[in-house]
Amino acid sequence: MSTSAASPDPASSDPSATPGADPARGSQHDAASTAGPGAAATGPGRSAAPSPGASRASSDDAAAASDRGHSGSAAVHVRDLHKSYGDLEVLRGIDLDVATGEVVCLIGPSGSGKSTLLRCLNLLESPQSGTISVGGFTVTDPDLDVDAMRRRVGMVFQQFNLFPHLSVLENCTVSQVKVLKRSKEEAKRIALANLERVGLEAKAGQRPTQLSGGQQQRVAIARALSMDPDLMLFDEPTSALDPETVGDVLAIMRQLADDGMTMLVVTHEMSFARDVADRVVFMDGGVVVEQGAAREVIGSPQHERTRTFLSRVLNPTTVDTPE
Ligand SMILES: Nc1ncnc2c1ncn2[C@@H]1O[C@H](COP(=O)(O)OP(=O)(O)O)[C@@H](O)[C@H]1O
Ligand SMILES: [Mg+2]
């Protein structure tokens, strides 16, 4: 797992999660504009998106999802995506779709390319070939307005990377003011509403270091939401947390899903994937091996590689005995 660098720089997304982020692309953008969490300034009412309050717990597939008010339009559309680091081909022809309002969980072994795929979606990595469109932006178009695209995509990473010298509230307002050009008053109002949403309005004046890991991750989610993203990307958001705080973060994510947010979530939390995701995509070796309704892929995987992976994740203490 590539988490050696821990420099807390929320402005450039998570450096520990973005090894090899294309420096040519990255350096064109000021710190705040690459914060990942970004969105069109459509106001805090965005959370009233499709089917507010509709429970996903009973959903089994994307068809059921459309019943809950999904527009069916593609929030993410990836075709034949290839990405290499030198001789190492990490993504070997990925096709992936996420419909507006859909929740997709991306699962797979370490090194299978999940983070790289997520990072390609908002050009923290530049793919060699293939097409990507995100929220109507053709990401692989050389003339893309990268900042405009990133404003629509919120990102939450394993390491939350809040600014340690800023208060919780300031962490949630800084990019709103810098990137979305909101007034300080409006940014504060929106930030407080989102901190309330994650149950942390009482911590607004505190520094991130005064918070538990789970609380810091909830602040990171509030920060992303404060930019009114159309799409949220989560890269193992609970992997770095103490077990007792994982549930709080998953509960926030579940609520977000119920509110209609479009979400692509890399996670090893299989119960979350089974209960919340409309669809599960299993990746291994840089390809999508299997995908389908969450309960089907997790409950009765079709491919041996999926079965092996799931049995390891679901029974982590089982030791394989060589034949
Ligand atoms: N910047 C980089 N330079 C070279 N290799 C990288 C870089 N980033 C990731 N990799 C390699 O790409 C493969 C996939 O990594 P990653 O997308 O992080 O996988 P996952 O998130 O599924 O664990 C791994 O073998 C990893 O070592
Ligand atoms: Mg990863």
UniProtKB/TrEMBL annotation:
Keywords: ATP-binding, Cell membrane, Membrane, Nucleotide-binding, Transport
GO molecular function: ATP binding; ATP hydrolysis activity; ATPase-coupled polar amino acid-transporter activity
Major localization listed first in the record, in broad terms: membrane
UniProt record similarity statement: Belongs to the ABC transporter superfamily.
Protein name: ABC-type polar-amino-acid transporter
Domain of life: Bacteria
SUPFAM superfamilies: P-loop containing nucleoside triphosphate hydrolases
A GO cellular component annotation in the UniProt record: plasma membrane
InterPro entries cross-referenced by the UniProt entry: AAA+_ATPase, ABC_transporter-like_ATP-bd, ABC_transporter-like_CS, MetN_ABC_transporter-like, P-loop_NTPase
Span of domain ABC transporter: 76-310
The protein's Enzyme Commission number: 7.4.2.1
CDD domains per UniProt: ABC_HisP_GlnQ
Lineage of source species: Bacteria, Bacillati, Actinomycetota, Actinomycetes, Micrococcales
Organism in which the protein naturally occurs: Kocuria marina subsp. indica
Stretches for region Disordered: 1-75
Record's subcellular location: Cell membrane
